[in-house]
Each structure stands twice: as C-alpha cells, then as structure tokens.
DNA sequence: TTTTATATAGAAACACTGTTTCTGATACTG
DNA sequence: CAGTATCAGAAACAGTGTTTCTATATAAAA
C-alpha cells in the first residue's frame, strides 16, 4: 500500500468519525434542544477530547452547519413523503401541512435552522443550496401550477418565498412566545394557507 | 421626614437608577447589537458593580424585558407617526411600510424583540400586552375596515396576526440569512403586502 | 533497526458569559 | 454613641467557545 491509499484510509476514518460526531450532536439537539448542543457535551458523549472536534470541524459553526444540512434532509424527506394529491391546490395544502408537522415534530431542528437560535451561525452558499433543495418539492408544484395557468405570477421562486415566509412567520412568532396557544397558532396557520392559495390561485378554482 | 418618605425617596432613586441602566443597555444594544448586551458591559458603562444590576433586575431577563418594552414604545411611535391616508388600503400599506422601516432602522431592537436573539427570554403577560399596544394602530385600521365592510373576516385580531406573521416571516428569513439581498427581500415584502391586501380587501377596490 | 520528524490527542489554560457568595463599609435604629 | 441591617464591590463559581502546550504515537529516513 502506497502513500496515497494510506492517506485515503485516514481521510475515510476522519469522515466516519465526523459523521458519528454529527449524529451524537443531532441526538443532543433532538433530546435537549439547540442551546444544549455544546462542544463539551458532544465530546463527553463521544468520550473524547474537545480538540478532536476542533480538528475535524474548524469551529462550532462547522458542526452546526452539518446539523443544518441534516435538518434540510429531514425536511426534504418530510416533503417527499407527501402523497401527490388530485388537484394542485390540495397538493400545495398538503405540503404546507407537512411544513407545519416538521416544525412540530422536529422543533429543535427548526429552531436551529430557522429560529435564530445561533446568532453566530449564518447559512452560506452550501446551506442555502440545501434549503432550496429541501423546498424543491414546493417549487416543483408551484412551477407546474404556473405552467398550467393556475397561478398568474411568473417567477416560481418568488411565490415559494412568499409562501414560505408567511408560514415561517406564524411558526416563528409562536416559537418566540408571541402567539401563546398552539391551537390559536394552528388556526392562524391554516388561515394563512387558505389566504395564500386564495391569493395565488383565486381566479380559477371553485 | 418620616420613614415613609425616606423609603419613598429610596424607591424613587432605585427607579431612576433602573431607568439609567436601561438606557445604557439600550445604547449598547443599538450600537453593538443584542449579543453585546452583557451584564458586565452594562455595569462597565455605568461604572458600577454587576451586583447592583442584579439587585434592581432579578436577572438578565429582567433587563432584557425592559429593553423589549422600550422597543415596543419605539415601534408604537413609528406607527403613530404614520399620517392617515385617504383610503384604508393605503393606510394599511403605509403601516406595513412603517413596520419594514422599523426593522431596518432598529434592526437590533427587532432582533431582540422578535428575532429570537435571546433563547432564554420569553415574553410574558406584560410584554405581550406591550406588543399588542404597539400593534394597536394596525388593529384599529383593520377594525375600521371590517366595520366599513371592506374586510369580510370578522375578528380583527386574527387578521392583524396573519398580516404581522407574514411581514415578520419575510424580515426574519432575511435577518437569518436565508434571503440574501436586501433588494430581493424588499421585493418579497412589497409582494406580500400587496397579496395580503388583495386577499383581505380584494372584493371591493378596483 | 534506530533515529528523527511529524502529526495529533489530551489536559489545562484563556477569555468570556450569567450568577452567587463573601466581606467590608456605610447608613439607619435604638 | 453602640448596634444592627443593608447593600455595593471584589472575587469566586460554573458554564461557554477556543487556543496553547506537551507528551505520545506513528511515519519517514538513515
């Protein structure tokens, strides 16, 4: 075995270790919340020094970034598991419902990704790309709706962003404690969804 | 001077000191951002021990809470300085614009109040009340619009919340770095505003 | 094989945070 | 004036992200 293959195995080992650490961090995130994800706690769970984490991920942001990407995967899967509906309007509704469910079932991931839990972490190119990928299901439906003439607006990304922002706004105000009861929040959420679909697809249906 | 008046002067002095400390904290907030508002930095600016801050405000949350209320005042004033428009639609548009301006001109306040900058701080009764007061201008216009038959929905608070959440969603996604350029963000914001007004007041105007 | 070089992991330290404790001075009470 | 109680200041505690130092273990060279 020459030098190339050696460094290759070492690189692989590092990559495996990296993945295990991310999984440990993800466990802490889900079980204890974003603010409990600390380098020391992850190191303790891995039974290793904090230094090894700093060697693999440059700093905490490097670890948080991978958790962000992990969250994007979970969100993407949530969207993908939505069964295609008969009408596009219903499909869009179902996707909005899936987004809501994601924020409920993976609240700690949601906080980390979109909640502003880490003021130090700002998504860069790769993270934004992952977010776009996660929302692709959404974009796809909107694009098709535009092509089918159900939505007048021409830029699908713009429509997706407006919808996303509305849904996020309700969820985030709730998570921030500005809308107290979950029941009220869900009511507002459904209201927003209806309002959005009405605004974008209003001229055609019913 | 009897005991009553003495303790009264002492109480007043404490109240004055409290206000000065809040102002010092507010200065740091505006000049350096939310994460720079630390007990030690405030104490340094006041040239006093940290203990005195802990005596007046129980903990950091107590101080943050007052900054939150301060921010509500600023927001309320921003709304109040909006001159009444001819049509209610335009008035609503102007209020939305004022909310945008507030998030731009007082970004650090916005982060503290609605950005989730302090995961430890959750608004309680008084803070929520202050928020409602700040948004009262909004509620007022919506109420009038409902009474005038311009908006079908009967519950003004619900309408205000849906609008607020939509606007907040766009702003917060931008502050979180998920929508990159400010230009794109403003475009989405205006789009949301138009869409909201269209959805709520669509059946009447032009 | 022996020596040299390098990489790296672990412990401890640094600079910061919110918060508490201890102590000494100051100011009210009897 | 003597005693007491309050309260501000410094220091300490427990935590954070991050860096430095050192010893070891492993790879390369002789």
Explained architecture:
The structure is a homodimer of 206-residue chains. By secondary structure, the first copy, chain A, is mainly α. Helices cover 75% and strands 0% of the residues of chain A. Chain A contains ten helices and no strands. In chain A, helix 4 packs parallel to helix 7. The N terminus of chain A is likely disordered. At the A-B interface, helix 9 and helix 10 of A face helix 9 and helix 10 of B. Chain A binds a DNA duplex (30 and 30 nucleotides) through helix 3. Chains A, B: This is TetR/AcrR family transcriptional regulator. Chains A, B: GO terms for molecular function: DNA-binding transcription factor activity; transcription cis-regulatory region binding. Chains A, B: It comes from Gracilibacillus oryzae. Chains A, B: Keywords: DNA-binding, Transcription, Transcription regulation.
Please describe the structure with a list of short key phrases separated by commas or semicolons:
homodimer, about 210 residues, mainly alpha, Arc Repressor Mutant, subunit A, Tetracycline Repressor, domain 2, 2 domains, about 75% helix, about 0% strand, elongated, disordered N terminus, DNA-binding
Low-confidence stretches of chain A: 1-5
Mean pLDDT of chain A: 93
The portion of residues assigned to helices of chain A is: over 70%
Q: Report the β-strand fraction of chain A as a percent range.
A: under 5%
> Which protein chains are joined by the largest interface, and how many residues does each one contribute?
A-B, 40 and 40 residues
Name of the CATH homologous superfamily of the largest domain in chain A:
Tetracycline Repressor, domain 2
Distance between the termini of chain A: 70 Å
- Helical/strand content category of chain A: mainly alpha
DSSP E strands of chain A, number: 0
Order of helices and strands of chain A: HHHHHHHHHH
Biggest sheet layout of chain A = none
Oligomer: homodimer
CATH topology of the largest domain in chain A, by name, is: Tetracycline Repressor, domain 2
